[in-house]
Amino acid sequence: MNFDKSNALVARELKVAPLAAQTFSKSYRYFIPDHSPMFIDRAEGARVYDVDGNEFLDFCCCLGPITLGYNYPRVNEAVIEQLNKGMIFSTQAPVECELAEKLVELIPCAEMVKFVKNGSDATTSAIRLARAYTGRERVAMCGYHGIHDWSIGASQNNRGVPKAVCELTSTFKYNDIEDLDRVLSSHPGEFAAVIMEPIQGDGTTSEYLQAVVDTAHKHGAVAIFDEVVSGFHYAMAGAQEYYGVTPDMASFGKGCANGMPLSFVAGKREIIRLIEEGVFISNTFGGDALSFAGALATVRELEE
Ligand SMILES: Cc1ncc(COP(=O)(O)O)c(C=O)c1O
Question: How far is the CA of 178 from the centre of ligand 1 (A)?
């Protein structure tokens, strides 16, 4: 295989954009030089075709968003139909309401949903809501939850995050309920939320996930499943459906719209509706009708 065009584009973009990639894990640093399609021209089903004309079976699935396959007709048709009516408006498109109703029907913890644009927005929205709901500030987390300060501050990539913010987040070990109890007991009455990726590695048990929810509640914290990876993959509603354990809130993203940029936080009405009472979660592209159309078509296809 020849990768001349890919390599030339990496060198060219490196002069104007760090990592020559907008997503950390898509950077040339994470792929084997001269064996990987650094720049992709097009994709179809499970296959991608790079700028040098090489064909690959794409096990990355775009890091999770591509649930049904690239260029999936039913999703494309729905997006094109909406595109012809308009991408986004000054107020809502009906497809927004339709999608919200569908998700509330399908996701066990969802009494209400709030749409945002990427997984980090969804987890951060959940944390802000949990802090407002409990009147507390500390967070216990287990897994990767995106780029925002409260979460990345607890990782090794925390340059630029204020120390005061880093100190509010603690991590706990997966599949070890004593560890979670120990972390929450270290600052009694101070934890607003327990957030975790419910499925990691080889997964877990219903008993463990239920114990996480119960332990969070015992300490007065909100239990949040970060279903950005597990959602729309292991089951439509992720771990809460797969393992039958319902958290107070959950974040979803990646696979919900077969590649269209959409995410959302779902949860109990009494928590999510705090958005009507001073918890500010809003963005200009929040009403992006194209993504809603893509998500509705994806969900309907997955249902079938
Ligand atoms: C479990 C989990 N939560 C949150 C995120 C953040 O999502 P995004 O990169 O869309 O902001 C990711 C991204 O990989 C993730 O895997």
Answer: 26
Confidence at residue 288, expressed as pLDDT on a 0 to 100 scale: 96
CA of residue 261 to ligand 1 center, whole Å: 12
Structure confidence at residue 292 (pLDDT)? 98
Determine the structural domain holding residue 27 and report its residue range: 4-59
Q: What's the predicted TM-score (pTM) here?
A: 0.97
For residues 79 and 164, membership in a common domain is answered with: yes
Q: pLDDT tens for residues 167-222?
A: 999 999 999 999 999 999 999 999 999 999 999 999 999 999 999 999 999 999 99
Kindly report the CATH number assigned to the domain that includes residue 200.
Answer: 3.40.640.10
Q: Is the CB of 123 under 6 A from ligand 1?
A: yes
Which pLDDT tens digit goes with each residue over 67-94?
A: 999 999 999 999 999 999 999 999 999 9
Ligand 1 binding pocket mutation candidate from 23, 26, 229, 263 (most atoms within 8 A of CB): 229
Confirm or reject: Cβ of 146 under 6 Å from ligand 1: yes
Tell me the CA–centroid distance for residue 52 and ligand 1, in Å. 30
- DSSP state string for the chain: ---HHHHHHHHHHHTTSGGGSSSGGGSGGGS-TTTS-SSEEEEEBTEEEETTS-EEE-TTGGGTT-SS-BT-HHHHHHHHHHHHH-S--SS--HHHHHHHHHHHHH-TT-SEEEEESSHHHHHHHHHHHHHHHHT--EEEEES---SSHHHHTTSS--TTS-HHHHTTEEE--TT-HHHHHHHHHTSTT-EEEEEE-S--TT---HHHHHHHHHHHHHTTPEEEEE-TTTBTTTBTTTHHHHT----SEEEE-GGGGTTSS-EEEEE-HHHHGGGGTT-----GGGG-HHHHHHHHHHHHHHH-
